[in-house]
Amino acid sequence: MSGPEETPKAKPEETHGSQAPQGPVPPAAPGPEPAAPGSEAAAPGPESDGNLPARLGEERLAEPVVRTGMFGVQGTPDTSGYGLLRVHQLPAIESPRPYGSYFDEVADALGGALEAAGVGFSDAIERVIADRGELTFYVRRERLPEVAAKFRDDPALRFELCSGVSGVHYPEDTGRELHAVYHLLSITHNRRVRLEVSAPDADPHIPSLVAVYPTNNWHERETWDFFGIIFDGHPALTRIQMPDDWKGHPQRKDYPLGGIPVEYRGAKIPPPEERRHYS
Amino acid sequence: MTSSTPRAAAGATDADAAEGRVYTVSGEDWDEIIAAANEARDFEHGERIVINMGPQHPSTHGVLRLVLTLEGETVVEVRPSIGYLHTGIEKNMEYRTWTQGVTFCTRADYLMPLFNEAAYCLGVERLLGIEDKVPERAQIIRVLLLEINRISSHLGGIAPMGLELGATTIYTQGARLRERVLDLLELITGLRMNHAFIRPGGVAQDLPPGALEAIRAFLESGPELVRQLRTLIDANTIFVGRNKGVAYLDLAACMALGITGPVLRSTGLPWDLRKSQPYCGYESYEFDVPVNDMGDAYGRYLIRMDEIEQSMRIIGQCADRLAARGSPGPDKDPVMIRDAKVGWPAQLSLGPDGLGPSPEHIKHIMGQSMEALIHHFKLITEGFRVPAGQVYAAVESPRGELGAHVVSDGTTRPYRVHLRDPSFTHLQSVAAMCEGGMIADLIPAIASLDPVMGGVDR
Amino acid sequence: MGIEEKLPSGVLLTSVEKAAGWARARSVWPATFGLACCAIELFQTGGPKHDLARFGMERASNTPRQADLMIVAGRVSQKMAPVLRQIYDQMSDPKWVISMGVCASSGGMFNNYAVVQGVDHIVPVDVYLPGCPPRPEMLMDSILKLHDKIMNMKLGKNRDREITELENARLGLRPLHVAAPEGSQL
User: Fold this and answer.
1) A79-90, pLDDT tens digit by residue?
2) Each residue of B85-120: pLDDT tens digit?
3) What ipTM does the predicted assembly reach?
4) What chain B residue is nearest to A194 in terms of C-alpha separation?
5) In terms of DSSP bridges, do strands B389-397 and B400-408 run parallel, antiparallel, or are they unpaired?
6) Distance from A268 to chain C by nearest Cα, in Å?
7) Angle, nearest 10°, between helix axes B168-189 and C37-45?
8) Three-state DSSP class for C58?
9) Residue B200 maps to which CATH number?
């Protein structure tokens, strides 16, 4: 009998042996169907709502799974995990106004600058998060050069220095797997802001910001090298860290760490990616 | 996206992009390009040569490869090629706990290991929300170590600079002073390099007995040695002749190229993160930010030497504060955050059977407190959990703004850590600084940027 | 190589070996192959406190053609490996290699796609020096061990004989095998 936390909409394979830790993804829409009972022989049948104890807040069930089990290990004979505990955590998705400190000024100035250029705020910006003392704008990728130019030029914004691009790969975030994160610094106003752009794996194109912030030249090359994000408009998008004829993009989550087992006399320790881990 | 904007596909093979003769640079064909360039019509036959400098070269400050197009002594084009020291540090950190990540990021820029650690740990602490709970003693020790590391890093840049210019005495004298600094670091952290001492939540250990006396002794004798070094170098005709007016970068160029640190301060802009966005309690220390407006290699060298002197001031203030606090012990004046779910549990001590957790700690977890035992076990096997989110924490490293973009997904391992290294950004400016100059100016130009290839390639 | 290769084995060859070994060990010129953190410790070893000049080694030969010793100091990435081999090939005999630090000896803490797991995959190594990074004193210890090796190096026919003996001894070594239980991590 499965534990009370089991969601009725869980697909059978989620209850046994699901491996990936869930990244900070938007809450998944509740699945439209319960799993077909007869098809998966190994799984217990899905619960209908009437069998679950009464619970407040359907939203909590829809939150993404953060970790499973006591030590979170599935599939190996480990002494610990009960395997059925699910801990849900809602990551920050969007912040309500007011954001606090100088963030409102920046958002308003950006809104004004975009309006003056005839671009609606929500055409360019998907959402805004103010979390842990930092402001993040999720920018739609088509509008990225425009928005960046406004950040650089508008006198109320004046973010002159770009600290480069950082890529992140969220394989569970279907449709938006590759993120490119730009950190901007305003020396005039002593402020920081972050721009985040996303692109799907199927179409990994993001417009290049080299024309706006030339410092991104090598940073974008590095992000292409490690994640496969193609920056359109980059003057020379080639590999920079890996050898020129390397296949694959190493820092993606589906690329292995590539270690070899360490041999001792009579024993072998597996490489770090295959070792037992406790989360 | 309008259709007329060329899309840079992988390898930049867009034929209608540029004007003039288009060399398709996909990176796998340096030999063909060099051969083609040498034979092309628009190269004056025999007057332009394409030469490869590095990656094994005494003067390129590490494994940096420069492909130079030379016309006589003049550098027409310079293309830096990096990646010869790429170690996959960032990906490796995704397979270790948050505390173990410190040992990896510390080896990125190996001349300033404590700065890498500080940037990463500040990021983790901000994600945990414990920034203001880090004990004050830990913050003072952090500032102390960071400033000592700043001195050793600047010397580690100036001494090889002398060697590359052919002035071996600068190298030996710089190494001599650097040895004193490394002795100090070894006394406090146990290692000369790659310390893994600054950890999320505080510092690994308290100062050993005798540390404050050693610091005072260093502050007595250090300034004299710095003065001797400066007498040797500052007004030296040959040094000035090779460095003055060389590798000029003005403020607009620095802004466009994302340059921070001594190079930015040599253009006249006094931007220092320790003053403008202070961390670790830097706002309470008295120090000046050296700045000049020469904009050339000589100006940057002067700023670095001044920064060494300012760092000694800060070290003196740290030593005063630590002396005022005395050493009441880890219960009254801890160096690691009190939170049992985050702070590293054990204080190391040297016993008859070697280095290990102190006997008091073992007695506590084995005999006195079950919770402490559980915390100890869970923290060391699993590590602590960091709530999901992302953060960018920047410190003012000896080279510029060192930032750590830390992304967490709520588990005990980092989801992504990206170190925004200043040397990586600064190396892009080699072309802007050196094209049109002489090949001999290339060396002081790169040395004045002070790139460390470990940080560039990570 | 030289006339010593052609001498018949005997008293003359032994005396030449002693003289040649003594001379070679006294002035080993390292090729600057500092890559990463170990290079900084190498650079400190050349400084005044731990003085490499007392061994005649302060003249680091920047050109591999004149170098005797390649101290591979630091992690060797996949991109750097062909360069390493090329430099080693450019060195002229006799040449020795010290792999300084754990990254050069075995890949060190970086067991991943980017680092060559031990420089002995690429060049033959004479002395392995662990440490992360090894202290200058440890580096000097390894250099002194290398000096011992150089001084006792046999030449010509003696060397061929020595190589055959060593080879036979190695072939006779039985591997130590411990059977690990099924499903364990070993």
Assistant:
1) 444 444 445 455
2) 999 999 999 988 899 999 999 999 999 999 999 999
3) 0.84
4) B392
5) antiparallel
6) 5
7) 110
8) coil
9) 1.10.645.10
A82 by Cβ neighbours in 10 Å (0-12 / 13-18 / 19+) ranks as: exposed
Nearest CB to B411; choose among A133, A160, A279: A279
Instruction: Quote the tokens at residue B388.
Output: 């999901």
In a domain, B23, yes or no: no
Radius of gyration of chain B from its Cα atoms, rounded to whole angstroms: 24
Please choose, from the candidates B291, B269, B49, B10, the residue with its C-alpha nearest in 3D space to the C-alpha of residue A247: B10
Tokens of residue B123, six digits: 């990021």
> Token pair of A209, please?
């910001």
CA separation (Å) from B429 to B30, B67, B434, C67? 21, 15, 9, 34
Domain assignment of residue B210, given as a range: 89-343+384-457
Do the beta carbons of residue A182 and residue A206 sit within 8 Å? no
**Does the residue B363 lie in any domain?**
no
A147 residue type, one letter? V
Q: Cβ of A241 and B388 within 8 Å?
A: no
Interchain pair B88, C115: CB under 8 A: yes
Instruction: Tell me the DSSP string of A214-226.
Output: TTHHHHHHHHHHH
Asked if B320 and B337 count as a contact pair (C-beta separation under 8 A), the reply is no
Classify burial at A203, counting beta carbons within 10 Å of its beta carbon; exposed 0-12, middle 13-18, buried 19 or more: exposed
Q: Which CATH number fits domain A91-279: 3.30.460.80, 3.30.450.40, 1.20.120.140, 1.20.1090.10?
A: 3.30.460.80
Single out the residue of A244, C172, C89, A123 nearest to residue B11, CA to CA.
A244
Q: What is the pLDDT of residue B48?
A: 81
Of residues A66 and B108, more confidence is placed in: B108
